[in-house]
Every structure is written in structure tokens, then in C-alpha cells.
Design brief:
201 residues, mainly alpha, 76% helix, 0% strand, globular
């Protein structure tokens, strides 16, 4: 049972969630987007949002600045969050600028706001759940996508609700967070997406 719960936390790690949102968008969007262009965007995003953070984590671990990929203490999280904020800014500027795909541009603006908020709270010694922040943001983006394109993705939304519950359960089971940290993490992820969706819905 414990291996399954750990697997849920690992598979839906915060660094993977933006990539899942982008892949979903390209798969479901009714807009015509050239396949080569899509591939280039996904490869660029994978390098910046997945591979680069993993390399940085191993560097921090080598330097004794991080004990595990889950960054259990608030002190461990500050530097990775700063780096992630820079990476997201780079993604907004180079990979999804506002003049290309407005939905993904504002999605990453929301992700940026969520990360800045999480950083501020971590500086004040409050450890929000980054897992819940990530899943909350992606969940709200999916809802906005369904409204914007008038698409029926009820199956996907139901699956996302199950995944959200599974992640919350896994973090509680592993004693990684309190219920309060999970709820606030979810809000930090979801509310910025609700705000930025006003600019593209």
C-alpha cells in the first residue's frame, strides 16, 4: 500500500504537472497547430520544466542543500522555488509568449503567481503543499479550457478530481503535510488560474 501512495506522489510531482497541462491542451484544442511546432514546444518545455529542475536538484543534493526530491523543510524549498520562478519566467518569455497561444501564456502566468506566493509563504516558515498547488492550477486550467472551447471533457475532469483526492490522501498518509497546508496549497494553485482566466475566457 505504501509503495502505491509513494508512487502517486512521485508520478504527479509538481515539476511534471505543467507539462501534463500543455500536452493536454495540444491534444484537445480544436485549433490547428502544426505538428512540428507542437513537438518543438513540448521538447523545449520538457527540458526547461522537468530535466533542468532535476539536474538542479542533484546539484543541490551534492552541495547538501536538499535531502530529497520532496524538499521536506521550508529552508530547502526557498532556493528551488527561486530557480523555478526564473524558469517559468523563461518559459513565458521564450516558449509561450502572449502573441502565440494566449491560453498557455496565461496558464504559465498563473503558475508564476502560484510559485511566488508559495515562496513568500515558505520564507515566513509556512510549508504549503506544492503537490496540491500544482494539481489545483492544472485542474482549474482544464475547467477553463472546457468553458473556453465549449468542449465536453467531463471524463477528464472526473479523473482529475480523483487524482487530486489521491494526491491529498498520499501527502497526509506520508505525513508530509497537514490538512491546512494541503488546502492552502490547493487554493494557491487554483485562485491565480481563476484570476488569469478572465483574460482569455
Amino acid at each position: 500500500m505504501k509503495w502505491l501512495i509513494k508512487s502517486i506522489s512521485f508520478i504527479f510531482h509538481p515539476i511534471v504537472m505543467p507539462l501534463i497541462a500543455v500536452v493536454f491542451y495540444f491534444h484537445k484544442t480544436p485549433r490547428f497547430i502544426p505538428e512540428q511546432w507542437v513537438d518543438a514546444k513540448i521538447i523545449s518545455l520538457t527540458i526547461l520544466s522537468v530535466f533542468l529542475p532535476i539536474l538542479i536538484y542533484y546539484l543541490l543534493k551534492t552541495l547538501g542543500k536538499a535531502e530529497s526530491i520532496y524538499l521536506k523543510s521550508t529552508e530547502e524549498r526557498i532556493f528551488p522555488l527561486l530557480i523555478n520562478i526564473f524558469i517559468i519566467g523563461l518559459i513565458i518569455y521564450r516558449v509561450f509568449p502572449s502573441y502565440q497561444i494566449i491560453e498557455l501564456y496565461y496558464f504559465f502566468i498563473g503558475v508564476l503567481i502560484s510559485n511566488i506566493t508559495a515562496l513568500v509563504l515558505n520564507i515566513t516558515k509556512f510549508k504549503v503543499s506544492l503537490h496540491m498547488t500544482a494539481i489545483g492550477g492544472v485542474f482549474m486550467f482544464f475547467i477553463g479550457f472546457a468553458i473556453h472551447f465549449s468542449k465536453n471533457i467531463n471524463g477528464t475532469l472526473a479523473l482529475m478530481a480523483i487524482i487530486t483526492g489521491a494526491i491529498a490522501t498520499s501527502r497526509l498518509y506520508l505525513k508530509a503535510h497537514t490538512l491546512k497546508e494541503l488546502i492552502i496549497g490547493l487554493m494557491i494553485g487554483a485562485i491565480p488560474q481563476i484570476i488569469v482566466e478572465n483574460y482569455w475566457l
